[in-house]
Amino acid sequence: MKVKISNYPSRLVCRIHTRYMDCKYGYVDWPTEYNRTERLLEQFEDAVQCVYNVFNRLWFDRRTQKVKVHIDRWDTWSMDHTLAPIILPMLKQLKAEKHGAPFVDLADVPKELHGKKLTKKQKESGEVDDKHFERWDWVLDEMIYAFDCKANKDVVYMRFGIEDRDGMKAEQERISNGFRLFGKYYENLWD
């Protein structure tokens, strides 16, 4: 198997006014009323962006991310083992660099991660409970555990003796749950 994926295509973006405002006021504390210099910079940025948009439509918007995948016959013989060493480091990187967390169903996590109940007003305003991010970390940990066991398939058998059938059964249930969570939250694997 050979996989080559290029970076996402970029676009021209003018950020003269934005950079000026970020340097002067910080990223969140911009004033509601601009002074003359700030208004001129904003108008200049808008004008330059209009020109950039022409180039973006003519050139940059036509480009796509390049993806080349070559699959050999033997890659599908045991596809679950073939994909595990690819998915495992991606999950680890996602956990290390994530900037947010999706909503996780309470039925998918242990009871100690359920958190406080929110009022209707808090839910409507987009607030999350105190365990929101811990739930997503737990789900990612379970996915990582499952793919680690699959990538290093001998790990399960080395942890338990042949006689410890209950331990192996519990281990297999945890691995299967990690793969179930991977499937359920597949569209939430973003940074």
Structural notes for this entry:
The protein is mostly helical. It folds into two domains: 1-70, no CATH class; 78-188, no CATH class. It is 54% helix and 4% strand. The chain has seven helices and two strands. The chain has a two-stranded antiparallel sheet with strand order 1-2. Helix 1 (16-25) crosses helix 2, helix 3 packs antiparallel against helix 5 (132-151) and helix 5 crosses helix 7.
Tags for this model:
2 domains; mainly alpha; 191 residues; single chain; two-stranded antiparallel ribbon
Q: What's the number of structural domains? A: 2
The gross shape turns out to be flat
> pLDDT under 50 segments (min length 5)?
none
What string gives the helices and strands in order?
Answer: EHHEHHHHH
In whole angstroms, how far apart are the ends? 26 Å
Mean pLDDT equals 89
Strand order of the largest sheet: 1-2
Main beta-sheet annotation: 2 strands, antiparallel
Assembly state:
single chain
Structural class: mainly alpha
What is the gist of this entry?
With 191 residues, the chain is mainly alpha-helical.
How do the strands and helices of this protein lay out in sequence?
Blueprint: E1 2-5, H1 16-25, H2 36-58, E2 67-70, H3 79-97, H4 120-124, H5 132-151, H6 154-159, H7 165-184
Antiparallel strand pairs: 1-2
Helix pairs in contact: 1-2, 3-5, 5-7
